Amino acid sequence: MATDAHSIDELEDQTMLSTPMTSLFGIEHPIMQSGFRYISRAPFVAAVSNAGALGTLSAHTQPTGSDLAEEIRQTRRLTAKPFAVNLTLLPENIASHPYDDYIDVIVGEGIAVVETSGAKPAAFIHRLKKSGVKVIHKCTSVRHALSAQKYGVDAVCVTGYESAGHPGEDDVPSLVLVPRAVDELTIPVIASGGFADGRGLAAALTLGAVGVNMGTRFLVTEESPIHADSKTGLSQASERDTTLVARSLGDSVRVLKTPVTAEVLAMERAGASKEALAPLISAELWHRALISGRLAEAPIPSGIALGLINDVPSCAELVRRLVGEAEATIARLAGLSTRP
Q: Residue 186: exposed, middle, or buried by beta-carbon count in 10 A (0-12, 13-18, 19+)?
């Protein structure tokens, strides 16, 4: 939905949604940006945080702890507002990425919020919590969310089937997953997967979540560091333009339908090995496609929320719009009459 400059200014003056998410992380609005590898760097993250949401740096993007420290300092030069750091913990990458150094930097730089995702985060969570860092763990099932709660995280981000990237193997949509998690957990739940507008934010709050985490919607913004042609292509796609690859490996990834995506699916049907598929589904490949504007050359991680994205706003405009729409939706629902 388009919003003109005049109404945007009015929304900035009028809208503020306070939830346990805003108070826990010291942010203005209950909205978080996903930590895209290679994409979530200082200028983009700072723009999200300056808009009053929670920007998230990708630690995995940085080859060394020193590089992460510099990225954190660059982000702080661009914003005085809170931002998080994402630690994606994949089993095959534990040995090849300096996670211990990342955590030393996170603690040493005084980062207040970390989002963990992936396998076996218990040891990392303990180190972070011991240093006073608030931890959000991203997971795709209630059982994994319960494990994270047991480890002592401050909140969980539950990711439904609609999500870009790795939605898990259970195929449970956010409409069911979010309230199930809320029913089972005693810590705050952030909703992820399929959220791109203020109606979705209002829906997440209605389901019991304390806010939303959005990836695809933030990817298609002015400050997102991908090519303008990529933003145009993604904004013109529909909810029917994504599919799952790597399901044959037990590690499903929701991506944009492209010629390379079709090639990957054909290889999977023929029984291709992980080693054969890896070059076609690598982060390096989709990053090059996004930066070059040649979307057809990779399976691009994209959520079903593409169906709700039809423009390229600034991060500030997007956040104001989301909050304004959410408040309008909540007010409309509050005004509905009930019959005796």
A: exposed
pTM here is: 0.92
Tokens (6 digits) for 189? 């739940």
Q: How far is CA 201 from the centre of its chain?
A: 14
Evaluate whether 16 touches 44 at the Cβ level (below 8 Å).
Answer: no
Cα–Cα distance for residue pair 97/79, rounded to 1 Å: 27
Residues belonging to the chain:
340
Q: Nearest 5°: phi and psi at 83?
A: -145, 160
C-alpha span between 251 and 93 (Å, rounded): 15
Rounded Cα gap, residues 280 and 301, in angstroms: 13
Q: Tell me the residue type at 13.
A: D
Tens of pLDDT, residue by residue over 205-228, are 999 999 999 999 999 999 999 999
Residue 255, H or E segment: strand 253-256
Strands 242-245 and 253-256: antiparallel
User: Quick one: which of 182, 183, 163, 185 has its CA closest to 172?
Assistant: 163
DSSP per residue, 91-140: GGGTTTS-HHHHHHHHHHTT--EEEEEES--HHHHHHHHHTT-EEEEEES
